[in-house]
Structure formats: C-alpha cells, structure tokens
Amino acid sequence: AFTVTDNGDLSAKKNVKVNASSGSSTYLPKGVYALVSRDKKAELAILTNPNVSGIQIRASWDKIEPTNNNFDWAYFDSLISQAKANNKKVSIAVARGLQNDGLPSWLSSLMFTCSDSSVGPIPWDTIYKKEWIELWKNLAERYENDPTVVMYHIGGIYSWHTPDWDLCDATAVDKNNWLNSGYQIEKIKQFALEFAQALAAKTKKPFILPIAGTMDNNGKINTSQNTNDFIIKPLFDLYGPTAIAVSQFGIMRTVFQVTTPDPLGIWYVRPLGDQFGTLYNWKPYIAGQRQSIAHTSDELKIMFDISLHYNIQFMELGSTQILTANQDDLGCYNTYLGILDVHCGH
Questions:
Q1: Residues with Cβ < 8 Å from 180, sequence gap 6 or more?
Q2: Mean confidence (pLDDT) of the chain
Q3: CA pair distance 90, 64, nearest whole angstrom
Q4: Is pLDDT of 149 > 70?
Q5: Of 84, 175, 208, 272, which has the maximum CB count within 10 A?
Q6: Which residues of 136-147 are buried (b: 16+ CB within 10 A; e: fewer)?
Q7: pLDDT at position 12 over 50
Q8: DSSP 3-state assignment of 167?
Q9: Collapsed DSSP state (helix, strand, coil) of residue 92
Q10: What percentage of the chain carries pLDDT values higher than 90?
C-alpha cells in the first residue's frame, strides 16, 4: 500500500500513520462511491465493501417518468433500500438521454439534430426546461427526508456527450448550427440558475454539476473563462460555501485520471491550466470521477494522491475498478479522509 507523507501525499515516500481527519471542511459527501450502471442493480460485493462509502445510482428519464407527470420510483427505491441495509449512502443521478436512448417519447420540446444524426432537446427551450426542472423537483421532494440519500449528481442540463457540457459541438458544423439555432451562453447561464433555484427550494442536500468547456457566442470553447465566469462562479455565489442560504453547490471533473496535472509537482510538472486550474480554484467543493478505462494499482495510487492535492474528498469510481483495486490503497485513501483509521505503510 502507499503511505501518506507529512504534506498529505499518498505515496511511498515515508511510512507514517495517517491522522484520522484531513482537516478539510466540505458539505459534499466523503469517500469512494461506486458508479452503478444506468438502470442496473448494485453488486453485492460493492455493497459489502468496507472501503465503499456509497453508491451513485442513475436511471434513464424515460424509466423514471414513462408518461408526463407520472413517476415510477421503484428502481431508485430498491437500490436505496439495499444501500441502507448495508450502511451505504446514495447519490442520485438521472440520465436525460437522447431520442431512442432515454429521452421520454412524450417530451414535445424543440429538438436539435447533431451531425452524427443523434437528436436531443435544445436546452433553453421553454418546454424542456419546465419538464426537466419538474422532474428534479419531484425527485428532491421524495427523498428529502431520507438520510440514505446524501447528494444529487445533476447531469443532463445540456445535450450531448461531447466537450461542451454535453452539448453537441464536436465539429465546426455543429457549432455553427447551434449558433444558427439561437445559442447564447447567457441562455445556458440562465437555465443553470433557474434549475439551481428550483432544486434548492426543494432540498437542503448538496448537488453537483459536471464541468467542461462551454461555448461562447462566437463558437469558441473555453473552461477558465466561459464556464467559470458564466456557470460556476454565479452558482457558487448563490449556492456555494459562502452563500447566505444553505450551502450546497459543488462541481465535478468527470474524467479525473492519472494524467491529471499535479499542482504540487509530486508526480507531474504539467501546469494546471484551463479546466484543472478552474477545479483547483474551487477546492474542496469539487468531486472526482474516474476515467472509464481500467487503471493499474500504481495508477490508482497516483490518481488518489493527485486528487488529494485538489482536496477532492468525494470520488466516483467504477465498480470493477473498486473490486480489482488494491484494497489497502482504498483503505489508506479513506483514512486520509477521516472515514477509516488504518495504518498506511508498505
């Protein structure tokens, strides 16, 4: 296993006993959460793993709301019950989806067709905004008083699984078509604020949004300027750690991996820059999520180490990655977060 050095590095530099608290304060959950595949069951080996604090569960929108305003919570209820029985916590997500892939067939909002022929809702369309917000308001009302549910992971505010907050903008043609369809970054900002206001009115639980490069009104994608200035900062000002009301907003890097720039230069000297610089500025109110490929044990050590430099205390990992990881490494990571109290040595 790796060890924690005096400056908080999970590395093999010194064989020391870890303090049972990182000393960091955050309203986000702490620990390793296992990603359960969309609409699937949680594995028993995950539910009984002492190094797993909870599970992140995700259902398709059309499964949760098969017809307009008629909700089916059976899937969520079942997994939450399993988690509770095994003393695990739950983070909830809903996969918004595209046409024929999770998007409800009853949704009558304006649609956008990407250059790859996939079709999804235009995010500033009035009908789409109303229905997506109503879904989450109903969800939050249902689970507000359930202590097993500790957080909401808000994906799907935007559209496609490409760089711009899931917006379909991978090609110049797509960018131009969005602009021709009336895209303005101010519309995205307004929707994000409307959504957060509606959700915060229904729950005191924290919620996080994934970050990526957001397109400006000329089709240029940038995180440190566009996303930070138009999305993250306004939401942190209203719902973040210094908010007058209940502090509950956080952000997530959805591909946190071994090659993530290391701010202290312990493993890499690559500069932070753009997305990772933005994340580092908002620590510890950020969460990490693994890359969707298998990592070796040594790579996971480095990933945990770098994540601690970012003060990430909530990490989502794939179930297979958790089960095949060195459990001593996971235990050491949890110990640094103050969840466990184990000796981190060689």
A1: none
A2: 87
A3: 17
A4: yes
A5: 208
A6: bbebbebbeeee
A7: no
A8: strand
A9: strand
A10: 57
What region, left, alpha or beta, does residue 152 occupy, with left being phi > 0 and alpha being psi -120 to 50 degrees? beta
Structure token digits, residue 107: 């949704």
On the question of pLDDT at 5 being above 70, the answer is no
Strands (DSSP E) along the chain, which ranges? 3-4, 10-11, 31-35, 54-60, 89-95, 111-113, 119-121, 149-153, 207-210, 214-215, 221-222, 249-256, 286-290, 314-318
Tokens of 97: 């989806």
Q: Are 107 and 128 in contact (CB under 8 A)?
A: yes
User: Phi/psi at 266 (nearest 5 deg)?
Assistant: -70, -45
Rounded-to-integer distance, Cα 264 and Cα 267, Å: 8
From 51-65, 76-90, 163-177, the region with the lowest mean pLDDT = 163-177
In the chain, the largest separation of any two C-alpha atoms, in whole Å, equals 60
* Whole-structure pTM value: 0.91
> Is the CB of residue 290 less than 8 Å from the CB of residue 321?
yes
- pLDDT on residue 24: 66
Cα–Cα separations (whole angstroms), residue 197 to 58, 162, 193, 200: 22, 26, 6, 5
Strands 314-318 and 31-35 come out as: parallel
- Over range 330-341, report the average pLDDT: 89
CB neighbours of residue 38 within 10 Å: 15
Q: Kindly indicate the confidence band of residue 13, based on its pLDDT and cuts at 50, 70 and 90.
A: very low
pLDDT score at 172: 92
Measured distance CA(279)–CA(253) in Å, rounded: 8
**What phi and psi, each to the nearest 5 degrees, are found at residue 331?**
-65, -40
Judge whether 93 and 58 are in contact, CB under 8 Å.
yes
d(CA 59, CA 94): 5
Phi, psi at 174, each rounded to 5°: -65, -45
